[in-house]
Design a protein that fits this description.
The complex is a heterodimer.
Chain A (H helix, E strand, L loop, with lengths): L3 E4 L2 E5 L4 E7 L6 E6 L5 E7 L5 E4 L2 E6 L4 E6 L8 E7 L10 E2 L3 E6 L1
Chain B lengths: L4 E3 L2 E4 L5 E6 L6 E8 L3 E9 L2 E4 L8 E5 L5 E5 L8 E8 L9 E2 L3 E5 L1
Parallel strand pairs in B: 2-11
Antiparallel strand pairs in B: 1-3, 3-8, 4-5, 4-9, 5-6, 7-8, 9-10, 9-11
Chain lengths: ~110, ~120
């Protein structure tokens, strides 16, 4: 079955610093989703990547998909306290025609002011 | 509605009781998913609806769990004879169609505690 490994498991940074979170798949990635979750809340959709080499940006967050390496990275530039939370990657890896996602275990991000 | 709506947001129930969790997807979304998030297991797929039918129920952990969807809209997840290991956050999600590649939007979740 599909497995997603996220690294690091947790990250503490000072406000203003850049950071990267990685998501590595044990199988071919058909689509990769990034979500953010605050404790006690639902998942907030960040970005979806479908093609190898694809890169998307929204505000200070950039996500890339390396299909050959079966890996995606999420990069935050000039982090702010509002970026704190749990970042989850989810993969549509089963090759099904519908969005059945397998998720990584999450990366807990803390940003100190 | 504007987003995926779930109720109740919190539920504490006694072991052995039945519970019903409700999900109201984004208007017009034909695909609906239930996931479960627990400390030990992370986020796990439970069931997928396309319209009112459920072509994939493979994630339901036991026959105590069932779900239905009516009118192609609201869905109810029912857990019978709850056990302590059922304690988790139950998340509902929806997407415009069931096709891979559609953005999947999640609700706030229903926190279930079985005591």
């Amino acid at each position: 079955s599909q497995e997603l490994e996220q690294s690091p498991q947790s990250l503490i940074v000072q406000e203003g610093k850049n950071l990267t979170i990685n998501c590595t798949s044990s199988k071919t990635l058909y689509g990769l989703y990034w979500y953010k979750q605050k404790y006690g809340e639902g998942l907030i959709f960040l970005m979806m990547l479908q093609k190898g080499g694809e890169e998307k940006s929204h505000e200070k967050i950039t996500a890339k998909l390396d299909e050959k390496k079966q890996q995606s990275s999420l990069h935050i530039t000039a982090s702010q306290p509002s970026h704190a939370g749990i970042y989850l990657c989810g993969a549509d890896s089963s090759g099904t025609s519908y969005g059945k996602l397998t998720f990584g275990q999450g990366t807990i991000l803390t940003v100190h002011p | 509605g504007a987003g995926v709506s779930q109720s109740p947001s919190n539920k504490v129930t006694e072991k052995g009781k039945d519970v019903e969790l409700r999900c109201d997807p984004i208007s017009g979304h034909t695909a609906l998913y239930w996931y479960r998030q627990s400390l030990g297991q992370g986020l796990e797929f439970l069931i997928y609806f396309q319209g009112n039918s459920a072509p994939d129920k493979s994630g339901l952990p036991s026959d105590r769990f069932s779900a239905e969807r009516t009118g192609g809209s609201v869905s109810t997840l029912t857990i019978q004879r709850t056990q302590q290991e059922d304690s988790a956050v139950y998340l509902c999600a929806s997407s415009l169609t069931g096709r891979s590649g559609n953005t999947i939007y999640f609700g706030e979740g229903s926190w279930l505690t079985v005591v």
